[in-house]
Amino acid sequence: MSVPSKMKAIGFTQSLAIAEQDSLVEFETNLPELKEHDLLVKVSATSINPADAKIRIRSAQDKTLEQPKVLGYDAVGEVVGKGTDVEGFELGDRVYYAGDVTRMGANAEYQAVDYRITAKAPTSLSDEAAAVMPLATLTAWEALFDRLRVRSEEKKSILIIGGAGGVGSITIQLASQLTNLTVIATASRPETEQWVRDMGADHVVNHRNLVESVREQGIQHVDYIFNVADTKGHWESMVELIAPQGMISSIVEFDGGIDLSALQGKSAGFVWELMFTRSLFNTNDIQKQQDILFQAANLIDAGRIKSTLTTTLNGFSVETLKDAHQRIESSSSIGKTAIKY
Prior knowledge:
The structure is a single chain. This protein is 28% helix and 26% strand. It contains 10 helices and 16 strands. Helix 3 crosses helix 9.
């Protein structure tokens, strides 16, 4: 496959409301230069995540960037080039990955990505169905097994706050398939309640009256809590519901403070999960993300985990990406939205 020297990309130079004309702009740029661990991927599909909207809104509030910042933290595509130290990949391989938040994202025709955070895509899924999986799967897997340190054999309970979104949906599936946990997930509408049940939740509770709703299920305390919706807003409820010596993890940052000492009496813990930590700091275990994606692909192809794709937008264009951003900013979506290039 011949690779051009230039490519089309879509990014932003100012933090603007998505409805504004220049909130996202198309431009032409050189193909990324490959580092020794890099794959060059011709992107065929991506998906939208809350991270895309957060970075767009926050990165250039009081300035104009000299070079447009390109978002896109999920991708499926074909390997068309590789660095000198790449192992385990060949040209033509179909891969999937979430990438590195410090580098150019997948909202471009080509992307450079470290092979150590990349895996071969599930063969049973279309490009768009596979594209919604990497970021959410990595986040869910790391939260369960690296942050909360769930042991697959223990018969405990987990409360997932924000069960119908991308990360929540995968966390429910992984917990149901790979652990003996009783899975409790929040949902507040009939369609989201059915969705989380379909994902494998044992109990569905309402986040609007969380403590009462959990207790109505006959559950006094939970051993683990994973919050993918609102850390500060649910803090008091989490403190009340967490079991003595339990653990809470969250992916949602917040302004102001929380009363962390409220967990002291229970000797309970709180830990952050950020999927980009390993690539941000080039940690010694960075290649664990490749292993997670490899295991996830096997689970998908075995029919144990299913894609959380609910909507596909077609065409690599500013209009399509703006549509995707509007959907993620609505905070009411079920599952994930993919963009097929």
